[in-house]
């Protein structure tokens, strides 16, 4: 009898665990469905809004027989537009309403992302690579006079920390490179398939941030010459080899499938790829040290060979902008 009760208890325990797992799985499915329906509703709303604007524009074309650009120019002349100051004095309200409608319509076609940074590969490179790989239509604004334009960006609320990069999309202005990279990753499918994937991606990304921090300390912070030499030697002979081994083991743990987490490219992969590229270009001998880990080299080659990333590298975008 006692054994029977114990067996029943164990069975009931398994059933409760199974029921809890089923409930969690159901909750995840419902949440996924809710998000999908929300996206579909938002897309439907935008389509309806665009239809209304197109209908209004068609009516305007009947009144103003000219193309969109000429129409906008004509309506702009009806008001005085100077910087951010608009005057409607002596302008018929009907005509001003036409101007505002066409301005809104034209702006519909400029709802693409903008990434603003210096004309170099640096803290904006991870989100930029993600945007490139995802095939996102975005603008890159290369700043060459940050000290001069910084007050303008701050006054507009676009640089709350007084730093670059800055990322913009409809309804969002975002600063801080890591926040930008994570946002772009979430939006375009570079953050894993599950919450556990996301946590592991964050873990790997934080490790990459440690590499960047150590690199900055050794190469860029003001140090006496002898201390600089010591910092570089420690970086090359101790810190970097340890990091190469760590990431080699993470790749091995994930099945050496070319990714740190899961089975597709993530923000952690791109962060490591960008950072090691920077390390190899600035720390002599570091590439040879990394060559001891074939799976790490295969990982780097795999990211570089992705079609859109390969095309991006071939464009040599920073050199082109300097010409």
From TrEMBL:
Stored PROSITE patterns: GST_CTER (PS50405), GST_NTER (PS50404)
A single GO BP: glutathione metabolic process
Region Disordered, residue ranges: 1-48
Residues in GST N-terminal domain copies: 111-192
Domain GST C-terminal: from-to ranges: 194-323
GO molecular function: glutathione transferase activity
Position of the signal peptide: none
Ranges annotated as spanning the membrane: none
Keyword match Transferase: yes
Keywords: Transferase
Extent of Basic and acidic residues compositional bias: 38-48
Alphabetical list of Gene3D superfamilies matching this protein: 1.20.1050.10, Glutaredoxin
A UniProt-annotated Pfam family: GST_N
Keyword Nucleotide-binding part of the UniProt annotation: no
Protein name, as recorded: Glutathione transferase family protein
């Amino acid at each position: 009898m006692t054994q029977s009760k114990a067996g029943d208890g164990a069975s009931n325990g398994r059933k409760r665990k199974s029921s809890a797992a089923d409930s969690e799985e159901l909750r995840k499915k419902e949440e996924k469905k809710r998000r999908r329906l929300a996206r579909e509703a938002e897309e439907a709303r935008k389509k309806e809004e665009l239809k209304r604007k197109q209908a209004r524009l068609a009516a305007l074309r009947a009144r103003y027989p000219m193309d969109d650009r000429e129409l906008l120019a004509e309506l702009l002349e009806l008001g005085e537009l100077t910087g951010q100051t608009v005057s409607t004095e002596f302008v018929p309200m009907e005509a001003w309403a036409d101007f505002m409608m066409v301005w809104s319509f034209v702006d519909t076609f400029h709802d693409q992302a903008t990434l603003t940074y210096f004309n170099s590969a640096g803290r904006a490179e991870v989100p930029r690579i993600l945007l490139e790989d995802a095939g996102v239509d975005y603008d890159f604004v290369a700043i060459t006079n940050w000290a001069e334009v910084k007050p303008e960006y701050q006054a507009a609320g676009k640089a709350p920390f007084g730093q670059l990069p800055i990322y913009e999309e409809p309804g969002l202005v975002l600063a801080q490179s890591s926040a930008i990279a994570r946002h772009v990753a979430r939006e375009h499918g570079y953050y894993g398939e599950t919450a556990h994937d996301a946590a592991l991606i964050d873990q790997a990304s934080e490790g990459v941030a440690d590499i960047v921090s150590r690199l900055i300390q050794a190469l860029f912070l003001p140090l006496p010459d002898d201390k600089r030499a010591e910092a570089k030697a420690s970086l090359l002979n101790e810190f970097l080899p340890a990091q190469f081994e760590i990431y080699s083991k993470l790749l091995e743990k994930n099945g050496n499938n070319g990714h740190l987490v899961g089975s597709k490219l993530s923000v952690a992969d791109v962060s490591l790829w960008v950072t090691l590229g920077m390390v190899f270009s600035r720390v002599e001998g570091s590439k040879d040290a990394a060559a001891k880990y074939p799976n790490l080299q295969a990982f780097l080659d795999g990211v570089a060979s992705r079609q859109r990333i390969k095309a991006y590298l071939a464009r040599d975008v920073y050199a082109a902008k300097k010409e």
